[in-house]
Amino acid sequence: MLLDMRSFWRTLDHGSLRDISLVCLADAIVGASFGAITVSGGLHPWVPVTMSLLVFAGGAQFAAAGVVLAGGSPAAAVLAGLVLNARLLPYGFTVADTVGGRWWTRLLGAQLITDETVAFTQRQHERRRRRVTFWTCGLALFGCWNAAVALGVLAGTALRSTSSFGLDAAFPTVLLALVLPSLADRGTRNAALAGAVIAVAATPFLPAGLPVLLALAGLMLAGRPATTEKEGRVADDNPVLEAR
Amino acid sequence: MPLFAIAVLAAGTYAFRLAGPVFRHRMHIPDRLQRLLAVATAVLLTALVATAALTQGHGFAGWARPAGVLVGGALALRRAPFPVVVIAAAATTAVLRLTGIP
Questions:
Q1: In the structure, how many helices (H) and strands (E) does chain A have?
Q2: Chain B contact present for A52, CB below 8 A
Q3: Which of helix, strand or coil describes residue B56?
Q4: pTM as predicted
Q5: Any idea what the Cα angle at residue A81 is, between residues A48 and B14, rounded to 5°?
Q6: How far apart are CA B29 and CA A139, in angstroms?
Q7: CB spacing of A199 vs B76 below 8 angstroms
């Protein structure tokens, strides 16, 4: 975007383009799962579609939809989604140089900030390359993600019975696959396991949605970072692919 | 999920995203906060995995679902492709239910 095609191809090497395509493909599969799982779980088709366009953050979308599907209140769902998306705040500062100085490119670029776009952008150091990488990756992901969610919704509407296909196991599995890499860090793992125990133990007693938020008490076990993070490499260290 | 809830989530998310591009010359995010936000993300997602895998309403979900999630998790640890992970989990749960395990 904002660039003519010839200089675009020169700026972005084939390796990066290939990597971005692969991530788009992987995210499309997660997006399709999101559409199919939410609709077959009983949400109206426009819910996953609207969420994907406006929220555009897979982890939070899965979390919020999961809370609602479990019978939780919309407020608990929104809170869970917002806690997850708070990590986008530092991302915005990391890639602020790439979205341009005009007000409308900032407004548009901000919506494209995800774990993946930041990770790809941080691999580039020259300013122009960073900018091209950010916009290419961001727009490609936005297109793939939303198209895939819509296709998933169509597929999910065709599936009638969730439990006989084992689809209720698909939702936690998707989240597990996304969070696993971040659990390699011991402090994070301790906090996450403690939080999971708290949430499961609280489930019989609290209204749906709250146990998951109570899990944040596990943060007290997080401890200090095992290694000091290198300046400007936040996205590479950040564990959770925004569900894509 | 009401449209209002989606709108609030979307607006809050967008505010997190827009803060950097707008305030980057006037604000700095401390490293400790960055680390805390990253860990909070992992904690919340793991809790969701545990509750969604083990519980249904206020009770136990039965063995078939957590068994499927466990199979999917094991495959993910072995870096199996994402579709394989998800399909194996769903298939395990479906097969266990066919054999009469709830």
A1: 13, 0
A2: no
A3: strand
A4: 0.79
A5: 85
A6: 26
A7: no
Residue B55 φ/ψ, nearest 5 degrees: -120, 155
Contact B34/A229, CB-based, under 8 Å?
yes
**How is residue B25 written in tokens?**
């010359």
Residue B86 has its nearest CB partner, among A47, A173, A187, at A173
Helix (H, G, I), strand (E, B) or coil at A183: helix
* Spatial CA neighbour of A49 closest among A184, A141, A149: A149
**H or E segment and range at residue B60:** strand B59-60
* CA A149 to chain centroid: 13
Nearest to A178 by CA among A111, A112, A116, A234: A116
Alpha-carbon gap, residue A28 to A35, rounded angstroms: 10
Closest CA to B32 of A224, A68, A175: A224
B14 → closest Cβ in A110, A183, A192: A110
Q: CA-CA distance, A50 to A150, in Å (whole number)?
A: 10
Are B69 and A182 within 8 A, CB to CB?
Answer: no
* Contact across the interface for B37 and A87, Cβ inside 8 Å: yes
Q: At what angle do helices A186-202 and B31-54 cross, to 10 degrees?
A: 40
AA identity, residue A213: L
- What residues have CB less than 8 Å from B25, skipping those under 6 apart? none
Best residue in B4, B6, B8, B63 for a mutation probing chain A (most A CBs within 10 Å):
B6
ipTM rounded to 2 decimals: 0.90
**Which two structure tokens, joined as six digits, stand for A47?**
């819910």
User: pLDDT by residue (tens digit) across B50-100?
Assistant: 998 999 888 999 999 999 999 999 999 999 988 899 889 999 999 999 999
Report d(CA A39, CA A113) in Å as an integer: 26
